[in-house]
Amino acid sequence: xxxxxxxxxxxxxxREEEVIFGDxxxxxxxxxxxxxQIEKKVDQTIDATGKTVIPGLIQTHIHLxxxxxxxxxxxLELLDWLRxxxxxxxxxxxxxxxxYSAMLGIGELISGGTTSVVDMETVHHTDAAxxxxxxxxxxxxxxxxxxxxxxxxxxxxxxxxxxxxxKSVELLEKWHNYDDGRIRYAFCPRFVVSCSEELLIQVRxxxxxxxxxxxxxxxxxxxxxxxxxxxxxxxxxxxxxxxGIASPRLILAHCVWLDDEERRVIRERGVKVSHCPxxxxxxxxxxxxxxxxxxxxxxxxxxxxxxxxNNNLDMFQxxxxxxxxxxxxxGPTSMPAREVFRMxxxxxxxxxGLADEIGSLEVGKKADLAILDLNHFHxxxxxxxxxxxxxxxxxxxxxxxxxxxxxxxxxxxxxxKTMDKQKVLQESNRSIRRLLDRTAKEGVGTHS
Length: 448
Description:
It comes from Marininema mesophilum. This is 5-methylthioadenosine/S-adenosylhomocysteine deaminase. InterPro entries: Amidohydro-rel, Deaminase_MtaD/DadD, Metal-dep_hydrolase_composite, Metal_Hydrolase, MTA/SAH_deaminase. Residues 52-410 form the Amidohydrolase-related domain. The chain is α/β, with parallel strands linked by helices. It folds into two domains: 2-55 and 365-414, Roll (Urease, subunit C, domain 1); 57-351, TIM Barrel (Alpha-Beta Barrel). 39% of the residues lie in helices and 21% in strands. The strands form two sheets. Strands 1, 2, 3, 4, 5, 15, 16, 17 and 18 form a nine-stranded mixed sheet that branches. Strands 6, 7, 8, 9, 10, 11, 12, 13 and 14 form a nine-stranded parallel sheet that branches. Strand 7, helix 3 and strand 8 form a beta-alpha-beta unit. Helix 8 (236-242) packs across helix 9 (260-269) and helix 12 crosses helix 16. It is globular and about 65 Å long. The termini are far apart.
């Protein structure tokens, strides 16, 4: 399959961060050539005159299993949000509801130019989410959540350690490196509060054995940190380092409340940090001190988290918020647009361990990209304005016209190609109604 994108403004995000005006040729899922003009016989041509091509956006913390819960858990802080609303709803999931929750989230992500995600699923029926990922065409690093410890957890979500490990390994052996590596597996212990030390140590050893990533939450909320200190005798990141999990394999979501010693561990161990500004603000958790992490050369990326705690999965909103929330405290130059756009592209690729494959538009890399129309009232005029500034501060997900993943068009001119949008919307509504009825009958997870 040869696909030619013609006459585009191409934001490469290569080492020189070049913007090239011209053509981009895709062959067999990879970028074969970028040049002012390409004259070759192709199977399909996309006329991108007046349009902007960017690397596919990469979100490094997503919960596809929670997309159905959008608007069901508003105005709560993290631990109440989990125990009163989200965990009961996760426990109520069945195979069909999880499939449509994943499809609904993926549809939103692809529509907004996100081509890769680091996803954390729920405890059961995780195979259904992987089927949705496989069918939709999105690139994903995903895994079932692991929980064998803690209070306030619905019995349906509480596993014994051996079962949690066994089910995770079975999913890994089935899905890791599916479709030439488009889907990869990560071990996903939920957070220290819900995991025994035995489970975490086994995850450490298995991640090394299978050469896969570990994806978990850390230091999102002060109450969470207090629980970890009471149980484990030290703060989150220091504890993870003590038991040998802090390494380049580790992706930590949030990291809102870190001290200097934890920042040192993150830098020295090569831990990846996923910054989720929208979720952190909505749950009143605070916001991560990203300038300090940048100053210590931490590996940073961005994620929307889940629709249950953010209410959207829009990377353009996350980029804008990531830039703005630091400025009142650290000054107007503290988070320039270019730094934020790096976090959303090549930074995400580094977090996934795929910087040689995705995150920029360069010959030989996977053809993951989005085509935007920036010719609207809200992002004009363009004359004299830095293009990256327009993308971070002015662009919206609705500006995305076409999304390509692995060289395949998954959305073209706003039309989804890998799923039936109307069916996903219809079945999503049916599914959440079923879960709400189920939790109401059990007398948990209802609105107070």
